[in-house]
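Complex 361.
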Amino acid sequence: MAFFAVLLAALAVQQVYGASTPRRRATCAGGQQVTNAECCAWFPVLEDIVPNLFGGECGDDAHGALRLTFHDAIGFSRTGGGGGGADGSIIVFNDTELTYLANAGLDDTIDAEAPFIAKHNVTPGDFIQFAGAVSLTLCPGAPRTGFFMGRAPPEAPAPGPDGLVPEPFDNVTNILNRMFDAGAFSPEEVVALLASHSVAGADTIDPTIPGTPFDSSPSIMDTQIFIEVQLKGTLFPGPDPGNGEAMSAVAGEMRLESDGLIARDERTSCFWQEMAGNQSRMQEQFAAAFLKLGMIGHSESSLIDCSDVIPDATPLPDNAGPHLPPTLDQADIQQACATAAFPTFPVLPGPAETVPAIPQS
Ligand code: HEM
Ligand SMILES: *[C@@H]1O[C@H](CO)[C@@H](O)[C@H](O)[C@H]1NC(C)=O
Ligand SMILES: *[C@@H]1O[C@H](CO)[C@@H](O)[C@H](O)[C@H]1NC(C)=O
Ligand SMILES: *[C@@H]1O[C@H](CO)[C@@H](O)[C@H](O)[C@H]1NC(C)=O
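Predicted structure with 2-acetamido-2-deoxy-beta-D-glucopyranose bound:
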C-alpha cells in the first residue's frame, strides 16, 4: 500500500514537472539548449561581459550595471508624462538624461557598457536588463532572475529634469507614488527592490569618499542592508554629509535618507523587517520585482523569454549568516513595525568595524 502511494506520488510529480517544463526547441552554436533560437545571440554576449565588463566579480561594474537597470526602466509614467521605460534611452539619449541629478555617476557605467552594445549589435534596452541579470549571478546570495529580449531602440529621452527617478532626499510618499506610477509597484515590491542596495554604494552623495558601501558586505547579496539600516544612526562616514544622507551605525558605511525612512515608515517597515535574515524571501521577492522592472514600457507577450541564457546563481558563503555588527546589540535596533518584533541576530565578535570602500574600476 505504502509502496503504491509512493509510486503514484512519483508519477504525479513527474507529470506536473513534464507539463510545466518548457520544451527546448533550439541548439545554439555553442551547444546550449534554449527554448527560442533567437536567444542564442546572448551566449556570446554573456561570455564577453562576465570577464571583460565585470572582471568576473560583484564589484563596482556589477553594481553600476544593476543600478542602470533601474534608472533606465523607471523613466516612465502610466498616467502620462512620457518616457519609454526599459528602452535604453539613458544610453542613447545620455546627453539629456545624464544631466538629471538623479543619474549622477552613471556616466561610468554607460561608458563601460556602450562598446559591448555596439560590438554585439543588440538593443541598448535589452543589453541594460541583460547585463543587470548577469551581474547578479556574480553576487553570491543573489537570485537567478529571468531575462526577456525584444526591446526596440528608444525614440526619445525620458522627460526631465529630475522628475522620474527617485532621489535619496525624497520622502516615502513621493517614492511610493513614483514607483506606483512607473511600474505599479506595491510598497512591498519597493522594499524588495531595495535589496539591490545590499550590493551597492555611493560615489556622488559625498564625492570625497567614492565607493562608500550601504552595508558591511557590498560584494554579496545578503540581507544585512535590512538589518544595518534599522540600527540607530550615530555617524557619517565622511567629513561632509551630502544631500540625501542620513547617519549610519557603522564607520565607513553610508545610509541613504530614503532607505532609513522606508525602514521606519508604517507603510513599509514590516515588509522591511521581514526581509532581515530571510534570504529566501529576499531572493524570491527581489527576483520577481526585478523582472517587473525590466518590463516597464513592455509586456511579457511582446518580448521573448530568454531566461535560459542566464547562468546559475552563486550561493552565499557558509560564514555569511545574518548578524549585528561588532559592539552593537539588539538594543540598537530601532523597532518600527508595530505588529511584530524585529528578529534577533548574533553580534559579530571583535572590535567595532570600519567597512572598507568598494574598489573603484
Ligand atoms: C527607490 C528608491 C531609490 C533611491 C532613492 C535610490 C538611490 C540611490 C543613490 C542615491 C545611490 C548612490 C549613487 C551614487 O552616489 O553613486 C544608489 C546606488 C545604487 N542603487 Fe539605488 N535607489 C533606489 C532604488 C534602487 C533600485 C530599485 C535599484 C535596482 C534594482 C537600485 C540599485 C542601486 C545600486 C546597485 C547602486 C550602487 C551603484 C554603485 O555602487 O555604483 N536602487 N541608489
Ligand atoms: C551619448 O550621447 C551622444 C549624443 O547623443 C552620442 O553621440 C553618444 O554615442 C552617446 N554615448 C553613448 C555611450 O552611447
Ligand atoms: C513629500 O514631499 C513633497 C514635495 O516633494 C511634499 O509636497 C509633501 O508634503 C511631502 N509629504 C510629506 C508626508 O512630508
Ligand atoms: C521567510 O519568508 C517566507 C516567505 O517568503 C516565510 O514563509 C518564512 O516563514 C520566512 N522565514 C522566517 C524564518 O521568518
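Residues 2-20 form the longest helix (19 residues).
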